[in-house]
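To the team - pyridoxal-5'-phosphate complex, inputs and output below.
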Amino acid sequence: MAGGPVFSIGWQNGAFVPANRVTLPLLAPGVTYAASVFEGVRAYALDGGPGVALFRLGEHLDRLRRSCEVLGLDEIPDPAEMARTMVDLMARNGVTEDTYIRLQVYVDGDGEMTARGPTGVAMLARPRPQLTARLENGVRCQVSSWRRIGDNASPPRVKAAANYLNGRLAGLQARADGYDTALLLTEDGQVAEAPGACVLLVRDGMLVAPPVTAGILESLTRDTVLKQARDLGVTARVIERPVDRTELYAASEVLLVGTGMEVTPVVGIDRFAVGAGVRGPVTQALQTAFFSTVRGAAAAPDGWLTHIPQTKESGT
Ligand SMILES: Cc1ncc(COP(=O)(O)O)c(C=O)c1O
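Output:
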């Protein structure tokens, strides 16, 4: 969750509360042992407004449920109730702008490492304006010397707080070496993903995605972009297959996709220029398709947009 102000109303364990009262207790396994999973959901102001809509909320909540199952909770939050609560949180805060919502589920109480409850749940929202310059100019990535965690150690398909130590180490190294972010390889040397986004490549007119078995989070943005590329015929083919490191250098375009990164061009990797070193035409076409969908200008499949009622309620 990028920094900045937070909307004043938050939600924790069944109650709307002032955002600064949303806290996690030190002795909770969710803190000490990172026994915690989460979702980051984005809401977009609609083109031609007024109004905002959450993007692919139902699928974020499905993924959260699957993450909770792996976390081993006795009580898993009900996705329908979480959806209602998030919509209510947005409406109570009177949100009219692009927003990021964090929904965290954690082992509360003061139990040991294997405690299965009690379940704690918290939500906060903050404005998240579009980073137009980054979308146009792109980012530079370092292939990290840290390796992506494996499915048999700390499964990346679970959106667990614990997995982000791996991304943090790679990100710190990349920043120290003058890059914007990192790309991680699996222990076998295959391309996995960035610390908070999936990676796609354009090679010989094909859009290529490392598969969901390559140490990645099963990203909803990746799914959206691959679907749109297929439906709109943005490239001749769209394939999911293992990707070698040197294919990153040979690609004509590389892009990062995720709720936070949206659809961001990668213009350099390990001091090599990607393609012409500027945003490429496929990336640009995918950005146009993505943003017209999330902003309601193009038709979206059923359930992708959850509209927020535009009435500000008072108090908490
Ligand atoms: C490690 C990682 N990979 C990929 C993604 C992209 O997933 P999604 O598109 O569902 O947000 C994220 C973040 O959201 C992430 O943290």
